[in-house]
């Protein structure tokens, strides 16, 4: 699964206004000819990214090329069950990629348009965001 090798700060703050802004970077197709774009905001875990990647690559029978445009670098902490209040912040549990509406998450090239659409639809079912399939305008 994806996770950073090294981070500057082990535990992060949650952040303030979640879901209030749209994406300003990673909004267009950069590598492939077909892409999967997020329409809502969410934190996508490294497990969900891996599940979507597996669904895509198995659907295209390991043909073509897949680009993952998001990376889970935000640590999420959790405390044990039945822990009393206080006692500090919990240990790092997993990593997430914060995704805003309009972010291009996956791109694909080297396969036919209908096969790419089917593969990206399978990947979209694994993700907790509403998605849209985008085609390159040539």
In terms of topology, how is this protein built?
Elements: E1 34-38, E2 42-45, H1 46-59, E3 65-68, E4 74-78, E5 91-99, E6 104-109, H2 113-125, E7 131-135
Antiparallel strand pairs: 1-6, 1-7, 2-5, 3-6, 4-5
What would your notes on this structure say?
The protein is of the alpha+beta class. The protein has a domain at 34-77 and 91-135: Aldehyde Oxidoreductase, domain 3. Helix content is 20%, strand content 28%. Helix 1 (46-59) packs antiparallel against helix 2 (113-125). The model has no long low-confidence stretch (mean pLDDT 94).
What are its keywords?
138 residues; alpha+beta; Aldehyde Oxidoreductase, domain 3; 7 strands
Q: Do you know the CATH architecture of the domain at 34-77 and 91-135?
A: Alpha-Beta Complex
Structural class: alpha+beta
Going across the major beta sheet, what is the strand order? 3-6-1-7
Give the C-alpha Rg: 17 Å
- Name of the CATH superfamily of the domain at 34-77 and 91-135: Ribosomal protein L16/L10
Number of helices in the DSSP assignment: 2
The general outline is elongated
Residue fraction in strands: 25-35%
Helix content: 10-25%
Q: Could you give the order of the helices and strands? A: EEHEEEEHE
- The CATH topology of the domain at 34-77 and 91-135: Aldehyde Oxidoreductase, domain 3
The major pleated sheet works out as: 4 strands, antiparallel
Uncertain ranges: none
In the CATH scheme, the class of the domain at 34-77 and 91-135 would be: Alpha Beta
- Strand tally: 7
